[in-house]
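Sat 14:20. Reprocessing the chain from the morning session after the first attempt stalled halfway. Input below, unchanged.
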Amino acid sequence: MLGRGDVVGGFEIQRDLRSGPRGVLYEAVQVGVGRVVALRVLDLRLSRGHDPAFVERFRQQEWPQHPHIASVFEAGEWEHGLFVAMQLIRGDTITELLARGDLDQSAALAALTEVASALDSAHERGLAHGWVRPQAVLIDEDGWTWLVDFGLFPGAATPAADRTAFAALVRTCLGKRSVPRGSWETASALMQAVSARLDAQPDGGSGWMRRLRRGAPPPQ
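Finished this time. Tokens:
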């Protein structure tokens, strides 16, 4: 774990924000520029000595731009591995919101619809996220949704795999019965089907959300 004042690739660490399987996320300041960023210092298992295929893909990674994808300012290598400097989002992950019971149905639907738009935009350019999970979605202080850590994954990724993972994310947020059976050409098409399914429920699906907030498992 790095400490305040340590410098990675020209970014000075201020404090740690959260950690996960892809490494530690810090708040940092770009030296000489003063820009405050979120600095992802990737896990050593994703370094040259452990996963050379990932490193090569990282070097060639194209970073998508979209209103709901956190912008990447710089990506590079330092003496202990890889780092990505990206837009600092002040907010909570879906994982954190669900753990506190702070994600109601309307907020979940809005967030998931925005994530779907971000995924579809990237997929149209032939790019895949590779790790669509509750930990990779942030909702900021203004209620805006952000997909983060794009492409920071070991192994191959495809739009189809992203959509499968996105369907699992929807089930995590809205219950297992929220996603109708079938296959979806886009994430947005999946969300349209989910919204229609919830609208068809007598309580609009709100009963599922009450059970989730109480910690009860969603209906099978």
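The mean pLDDT is 89.
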